[in-house]
Amino acid sequence: MTGTGAPSVPEGATGSRALGLLLAMAMFVLVVDTSLMNVSISAVVQDLGTTVSGVQSAIALEALVSAAFILIGGKVGDLVGRKRAYVLGLVGYAVGATAMAFAQTLTAVVIFWAVVGGLGASLLLPAMQSLIHGNFEGAARKKVYALVGAAAAIAAAVGPLLGGFITTYLSWRVGFVFEGVVIAVVLTGIRLVHDVPYTGARQIDLVGAALSVLGMGGVVLSILVWQEGGGAVGLIMLIGVAGLVGLVLWLRRQADRGRTTLLDPALFVSRHFRIGVSQQLFQQIALGGTMIVLPIYLQMVLEYDAMEAGLALSPLSLTMFGVAVLAGRSAGKRRPSRIVQLGFALFAVGVVALIVIVPQSGSGWSLSLPLVVAGSGLGLLVSQLNNYTLSPIADERVSEAAGVNSAAGSFGLSFGLAFSGAIMLATLAATFTAEAESSTVLPPDDQQRVAQVLAEDAELMSNTKLSGLLAEQPEEIRQEILRINTETRPFALQVSLAVPLLAGLVGLVNSFRMTRLPDPRPAGPDGPVAG
């Protein structure tokens, strides 16, 4: 069922303005959700009696589910109706937010927030793209795209501050109640949405859908399993890689035979689209890795509360927003490829400065200048990459192309979140064990016990919490373990910052390919621009 196929809302109508605002509100909730979790890690760990690695895994899993199912979500919207998919996506996200308000265990967070909420996002994002395209026309459509984009940028900028304030002065659960209320308001305006009919093929590429989930899911899931000390990590990773390779081969085979595919490989005829999608992937790996490492550092090492952590992160988020707005307004004055190149370069410089400063940092404000530099780089990237990637694609195919672009971004985000966290905990376990075994203060039995505990459940822990756990130990042993913890945590965080740094450097190298291409030009009516 695809709906009635009602015409676009007339430009300038009252309903269109209200609908645009509601769509922007939905996007705001989608983006602010992860920021709320990042700055609330310490509070969530304490309230649920779980671990930092467990909460970090849930955050990465939510992004992974969204990435793994977003291409399928777009096809579901085609078949059941974009309006219905939009409603189902909102409801799924509301279920996840409501569950977070009442969750008592990490299992509930994983099932309802990460899985159900992630599935909701996978339906909501592509449906929103299609509904904007079908409900608005001309200047009104451009205004709504700009409004939704601005809502996402504002959410990214104020998310850490808003989440920090709510968590510190109310409760992290209140933040998710707020999300549920916003979604309820958005649903009250569903009558303003006119469904967008789908006239393409009705068949579903089940094999392509399965391979996409298997590929993206396997790669990130293997990292999460490794982080939690599970087995068969290599096998899961191999299955994931095989799934991605199999997806590419399958799509090409089906396209050559003229059969229905999960996505059309012809989209990748455009070199601008190919390189734009890859740059989106690297940008999101860089962002995801940075935004999981820094909140953990601020809350577990410097022992900041959520508000203090949000304030300390504000130079990154606010600079990213401000630079994106300024760069977007003056985009025509410079080549997009040069702006992207400068963006990756600034981000890499900022992360290198963070790596140098972390061991000597006694305050989050000492990180402000590197965060401003890194945020400026991310702002430049945000201002250019979506338009660069999608501009060569014809209007009738932009929804599918946007789905691919979103999938690459969500996969990159989940990979950055998972891999940075896993590297941090693995480094912590290795260095803590090495320091304990070389200690002249700890008895051999204590050295072995430390090694065994870390091998089973590596955990980044504040000195205050660790001191409480060691209250019954002799003072000499307690001080020695606290010393080891103090010295190993910054190093583990330095190593984990190598993940976003490497993504930024690969993006920088890739940008030289962009500069050798001519600037992208709008697509013709028949499909992607070749070249």
Give a structural overview.
This protein is about 75% helix and about 0% strand. The protein has 18 helices and no strands. Helix 1 runs parallel beside helix 6, helix 10 (about 270-300) packs antiparallel against helix 18 and helix 11 crosses helix 13 (about 370-390). With about 525 residues, the chain is an all-alpha fold. The chain is globular, with a radius of gyration of 23 Å. It has three domains: about 15-195, Up-down Bundle (Growth Hormone, Chain: A), CATH 1.20.1250; about 205-260, no CATH class; about 265-520, Growth Hormone, Chain: A, CATH 1.20.1250. The protein has helices at about 15-40, 40-50, 50-80, 80-100, 105-135, 140-170, 170-190, 205-225, 235-255, 270-300, 305-330, 335-355, 370-390, 400-440, 445-455, 465-470, 475-495, 500-515.
Write out key terms for the chains shown.
transmembrane helix, mainly alpha, transport, Growth Hormone, Chain: A, transmembrane, 0% strand, single chain, MFS, globular, MFS_trans_sf, 531 residues
List the helices and strands and how they pair.
Layout: H1 14-39, H2 41-48, H3 52-80, H4 82-102, H5 106-135, H6 138-169, H7 172-188, H8 206-227, H9 233-256, H10 271-301, H11 306-329, H12 336-357, H13 368-390, H14 398-438, H15 444-456, H16 463-469, H17 475-496, H18 498-516
Pfam families: MFS_1
InterPro entries: MFS, MFS_dom, MFS_trans_sf
Keywords: Membrane, Transmembrane, Transmembrane helix, Transport
From the 3D structure, determine the CATH topology of the largest domain: Growth Hormone, Chain: A
Strand content: under 5%
Overall geometry comes to globular
Intertermini distance: 37 Å
- Quaternary structure classification: single chain
| Radius of gyration (Å) | 23 Å
User: Uncertain spans, ≥5 residues at pLDDT below 50?
Assistant: 1-14
